[in-house]
Amino acid sequence: MVLHFLFHNESGAALLLALLLQSLLTLLGLFISIQATTGVQISDNYESHIQATYAALAGLNHARILLCGLALNDVLRGPDGRYEATAVYMAEARSHRFRSPLPLMKAQTLNIADPLVDVGMIPDDGVFSTGLCEDVPGIPLIPITGISQAGPDSYGSGSIITSRYFVKAADNNGEASEIAGDAGDNPFTDGDGIIIVRSLGVAGTIPAETGSFMRRNSAAVFEARFKRLSTWALGSALVVVGSPARADFNGAFEISGGSRSGIATIDPVPGDTLFPDQIIRTAASGNGDISGGGEANPSVRDVTDQVRLNPDQRLLLNPAYLKNFTINQSPRLADGFYDGNQNWGGGTAPFLGVFDPEKPLNAPEQDPKITVVKGDLEVNGGITGGGLLIVTGRFSCSGSFYYSGLILLIGAGDLTTSGSCEIDGGIYIASLAEAGELVSFGTPTISISGNSRMASNRNAVQMAVGLIPPTQTGFREIAGADP
């Protein structure tokens, strides 16, 4: 009887121990399964966040490139060129949250492969486009649906959309510089050449439900501030930097500055006894017609003080900046780059772009170009062009030549015109002298004769300046709520 009792108890204990062990193993297996699932989710979330980050950064880079050649007001107002002018909407447009292409929750839940249903009703204000032109809506360059990025399909053939970026532009309302140029502080009118671009990158991840919220994507938001420098927009038809300057004028030429002086001079050595404005005025006296600014012929004015007070134009007093722009930056921007001396006639000249200052900047026929010549350039007639022309050597023009835009003669700083050379926009001349690593200003040389004509044109200069990529002056990640 005792043996039977002991045997019965041992069997029960063994069963209990087996059940306990089975429970522990089950819990351990469940724990390992949960850990594995959590690890996969963490890994996938991390990977998708990285993809979203790079997508957002790609959006900012894309936006900076697109800003070249676009009017900032066209960007702010979107493809249809219109905006809701109600007090409520204008107040909303001045807020920080207005800068976001999409609300964060919508970005985390949308269908990354086809987001049209999720974003189709969002206003097009701030969408990068070619802008409204003669009542025809512009072409979206980064549409409301964003730009998708694809990668190989790990589970099949072909590719799949892995991420997408959405980009929106907004004005820097409320800042002193903006109000100075736009007294009404209109969020759809640029006043200071500064624009704020916010890029939202999204990438698909493992769906996770939190209450009624189904999160399908990781999201990253970055914001950059871009400034279109007004360095070259001085207003005069001809701008000469140097102390002293060599000048020769002859013939029935015309230099018109409109509301500004015909010729503006910048004296980089104001403490000496040489005055480039007086030198040029004396050389031009009794020759041709140099008008502008309501001044007597010849209209020549020293604008050094004006340049020193303007942060953008102050760069013109820095020869190292001018050298870096012409030698290092401009070749990377150029549509056409020519290394060595050039001699162009009507049949040998490359395409130098087309721009009609009487038509809208975004008219279909406008096609301005950046052309850079590292060396001397001689044009012999029968040539037209439009955009930005940069020459580091001597520039001589004879015969028939028409150019609409901005010509920068930085390096040799030597200009010779004769015949019917016509510039509609502006010319900037600076001679640079190098001694080892040091760069200083040399003596610019000007010889203008014949029927040459130079006329200041604000639209043409603004177009040319707009071809230069804007300067990025700020950058931040929007990781939480807007200020």
Care to give the gist of this entry?
This protein has 483 residues and is α/β, with parallel strands linked by helices. It has ten helices and 24 strands. The chain has two domains: 46-228 and 471-477, no CATH class; 238-466, no CATH class.
In total, how many domains does the architecture comprise?
2
The dominant shape is elongated
Main β-sheet: number of strands, strand sense, barrel status? 13 strands, mixed
Class from helix and strand fractions: alpha/beta
Taken as a percent bin, the fraction of beta residues is 25-35%
The helical percent reads 25-40%
Distance between the termini: 84 Å
Give the number of helices: 10
The Cα radius of gyration reads 32 Å
Mean pLDDT: 89
* Unreliable stretches covering 5 or more consecutive residues: none
Tally the beta strands. Answer: 24
Structural commentary:
With 483 residues, the chain is α/β, with parallel strands linked by helices. It has 2 domains: 46-228 and 471-477, no CATH class; 238-466, no CATH class. The protein is 28% helix and 32% strand. The chain has 10 helices and 24 strands. The protein has helices at 2-66, 72-77, 87-93, 104-109, 116-119, 176-181, 276-284, 304-309, 319-333, 458-466, and strands at residues 147-152, 159-171, 194-210, 213-227, 238-241, 246-249, 254-256, 263-266, 289-291, 300-302, 336-339, 342-344, 353-354, 367-374, 377-379, 383-391, 394-397, 400-411, 414-417, 420-435, 438-441, 445-448, 453-456, 471-477. The strands form 3 sheets. Strands 5, 7, 8, 9, 10, 11, 13, 14, 16, 18, 20, 21 and 23 form a 13-stranded mixed β-sheet that branches. A 6-stranded parallel β-sheet has the order 6-22-19-17-15-12. The model has no long low-confidence stretch (mean pLDDT 89).
